[in-house]
């Protein structure tokens, strides 16, 4: 395994979207006071060590005029969407905004295929046919399910889309209920969990769950795929400097017109909302974070959160936060939960075994570790908050 070192001054929590399940539509009524904390991941339009100078590349309005930064927001897959890009001589602000609209529509389209909240979705149809018959699905759902099973294989099963079988025991979404299930309740469901029960037929492009009790959910991987597809649309539309963000899943492309990179803020998992522990330049790469702080509650001094260890049926305890840096958002999204559950030693070993991947891990004691590929890339903002 490539070496790793502990970084004394870092703790991260970009934003936890590596969820145990896809989230329901927002309710009309307010959430209870123990509701999950809002998404706090963000990119910053400034280099690490100095304010960004004015952009100098040309714009459509006049040769040599500064490029304009264009931003947009939206909502899909139960989370906040954010886009930013710079105009070019061929793409004015209106054209850039139309590309953002198309990218948002693409994310919404994928949500309809892969959510478990819509009984007509492809994933819901797979679950409805569990133990009965294989279900033919489109190439995108088949690809994401296949990739999820590969992630299970390489992570000792710590990433497992059959976690959905536990649905209803743990309530961390808009149905948040700060009453943990009993060990007996968990055992009764856990005996059916296992990614090897998911059977794929590539020739027929079908998915079959071989036990009627089984369910799958793509909440821990679908947003990453959606961010990649939205980024592809922007790239094909002619943009060369942009970012796409869905909750804590982020992909950035290119450098800003002044030559500086996009800067990602990484969140203190025990700090207040919006408190960034560190910053890091990100270009042509993705970030995704699993954290125990966003969708959680505390009972009798013990924190319960949405990242469930499929081996135990209870919230994982090895980490507070894991941020994955990877070539694609899909890869980052599928690894953050796995590394969170595996913990520092096995998690870093997995990260170092995959080309182009890095990680920053805040362990259960608040100690922070970084993989070899991220050494020298991450800049501390302040020491980590030290509390349970």
Written account of the structure:
It is built from 7 helices and 18 strands. With 388 residues, it is an alpha+beta fold. A hairpin with a 2-residue loop joins strand 8 (242-246) and strand 9. The chain is globular, with a radius of gyration of 21 Å.
Calculate the terminal CA-CA distance, rounded to whole Å: 30 Å
> What is the CATH third-level topology name?
T-fold
Tell me about the biggest sheet? 9 strands, antiparallel
Q: What percentage of residues falls in helices of 4 or more residues?
A: 10-25%
Strand content bin: 15-25%
Order of helices and strands: EEEEHHEHHEEHEEEEEEEEHHEEE
Per CATH, the architecture is Roll
Q: Find the structural class using helix and strand composition.
A: alpha+beta
Shape summary: globular
Number of DSSP E strands: 18
Could you state the CATH homologous superfamily?
Answer: ApbE-like domains
Q: Please report the number of helical segments.
A: 7
Q: Radius of gyration from the CA trace?
A: 21 Å
Q: How many separate structural domains?
A: 1
Q: Which strand order does the major sheet show?
A: 1-17-16-15-12-9-8-4-3
- Kindly state the mean pLDDT as a whole number? 84
């Amino acid at each position: 395994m490539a070496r790793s070192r502990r970084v004394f001054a870092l703790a991260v929590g970009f934003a936890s979207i590596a969820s145990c399940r896809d989230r329901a539509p927002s309710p009309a009524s307010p959430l209870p006071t123990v509701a999950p904390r809002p998404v706090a991941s963000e990119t910053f339009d400034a280099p690490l060590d100095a304010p960004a100078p004015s952009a100098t590349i040309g714009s459509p309005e006049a040769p040599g005029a500064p490029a304009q930064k264009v931003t947009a927001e939206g909502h899909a897959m139960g989370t906040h969407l954010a886009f930013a890009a710079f105009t070019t001589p061929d793409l004015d602000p209106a054209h850039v905004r139309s590309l953002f609209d198309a990218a948002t529509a693409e994310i919404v389209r994928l949500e309809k295929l892969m959510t478990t909240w819509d009984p007509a979705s492809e994933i819901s149809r797979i679950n409805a046919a569990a133990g009965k018959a294989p279900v033919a699905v489109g190439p995108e759902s088949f690809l994401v399910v296949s990739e999820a099973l590969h992630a299970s294989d390489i992570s000792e099963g710590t990433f497992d889309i059959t976690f959905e079988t536990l649905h209803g025991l743990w309530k961390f979404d808009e149905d948040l209920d700060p009453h943990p299930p009993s060990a007996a309740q968990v055992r009764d469901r856990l005996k059916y969990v296992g990614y090897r029960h998911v059977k794929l037929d590539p020739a027929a492009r079908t998915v079959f769950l071989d036990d009627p009790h089984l369910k799958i959910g793509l909440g821990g991987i679908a947003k990453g795929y959606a961010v990649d597809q939205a980024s592809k649309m922007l790239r094909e539309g002619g943009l060369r400097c942009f970012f796409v963000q869905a909750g804590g899943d982020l992909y950035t492309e290119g450098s800003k017109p002044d030559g500086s990179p996009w800067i990602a803020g990484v969140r203190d998992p025990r700090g207040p909302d919006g408190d960034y522990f560190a910053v890091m330049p990100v270009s042509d790469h993705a970030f995704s974070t699993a954290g125990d702080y966003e969708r959680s509650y505390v009972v009798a001094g013990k924190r319960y959160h949405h990242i469930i260890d499929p081996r135990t049926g209870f919230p994982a305890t090895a980490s507070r936060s894991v941020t994955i840096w990877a070539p694609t958002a899909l890869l980052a999204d599928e690894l953050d939960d796995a590394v969170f559950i595996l913990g520092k030693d096995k998690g870093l070993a997995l990260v170092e075994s995959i080309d182009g991947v890095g990680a920053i891990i805040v362990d259960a004691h608040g100690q922070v570790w970084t993989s070899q590929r991220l050494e020298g890339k991450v800049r501390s903002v302040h020491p980590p908050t030290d509390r349970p």
